[in-house]
Amino acid sequence: MAENPPINISLILGPVVVGALVNALLTGVCMVQFLEYYDSRFKDGPTIIGLVIWVAVVDTFSTCTSSYLLWHYAVDSLENKVGLLSTPWQYSMLATFTALISIPIQFFLAWRIRVLSKSIVFFVVICTLSLAQGGLALATSIGASLEPYVEANGRRVPFADSFLAIAVACDASITVALSYYLWKSRTGMKVWLCWSGTLIDFTKPRLELTRVVVDRHSQVKPALDFYIARGPIVHKHPHDGSRQLICVYD
User: Fold this and answer.
1) Bridge partner list, 234
2) How many C-beta atoms lie closer than 10 Å to residue 195's C-beta?
3) Would you list the domain boundaries of the chain?
4) Residues 122, 110: Cα–Cα separation, whole Å
5) Contact 111/123 with Cβ under 8 angstroms?
6) Which of 60, 114, 205, 250 shows the greatest Cβ crowding within 10 Å of its Cβ?
7) 3-class SS at 3?
8) Is residue 44 helix, strand or coil?
């Protein structure tokens, strides 16, 4: 009978404990955001609502499987070498769960960038990176499920590293591009600065001024700037596409 190979507990149980705890923390943050979204009653389309529900369901299921994985290694197999060396399906499916959450979100944000930039290049690049990391994640999960022991998964490290590297590159591209185009399209701030200077010059020092600017640029959500005061409201519709409420109290 072959002897079981030596086990480094820190390399098996350590990452599982840290990963399960961090995943639970992030899931809690996501669930708070999901409840806030549900409570706010946003009138979004079925695509966005479906995306939010999909992410919440998959993330919850992934957290449950990672919690079971922690129980498997820390409780059920704590004194069982065979159990510590085993790779249950929850272990193999971690990469796939990550891809199932990230790919729809990356496609959605890539389309937002496409709308803001009016360029197909960013959309194609981001979608290509997203599909590539999804394919590598699936290959990693399939390969891990075929290995009976944890130590044999060392052969899958290049696939896992490539999957993580491409995922980081995709997320970084989305962050940079979306931040740039959202900042570039902030026309409401320029309008606010212009009107503020004009009104301050022509009003008395004791006047209180407020204004609400709703900048409806492109197809993104309205950006609101509030300055609260009392008095009659003058509602103007300038030709630049924005809506302005000016309130002056004497």
Assistant:
1) 246
2) 18
3) 1-86, 99-184, 187-249
4) 7
5) yes
6) 114
7) coil
8) coil
Residue type, 65: T
Token pair recorded at residue 17: 């404990």
Dihedral over alpha carbons 123, 129, 29, 65 (to 10 degrees): 140
Tens digit of pLDDT per residue, the chain (250 long)?
A: 445 555 566 666 777 788 888 888 888 888 888 888 888 877 788 888 888 889 889 988 988 888 888 888 778 777 777 777 777 888 888 889 889 999 999 999 999 999 988 889 989 999 999 999 999 999 888 888 887 776 666 677 788 888 889 999 999 999 999 888 888 876 544 544 554 554 444 444 433 443 333 343 334 444 333 333 333 344 444 455 444 444 433 3
User: What gap in Å lies between CA 196 and CA 189, rounded to an integer?
Assistant: 11
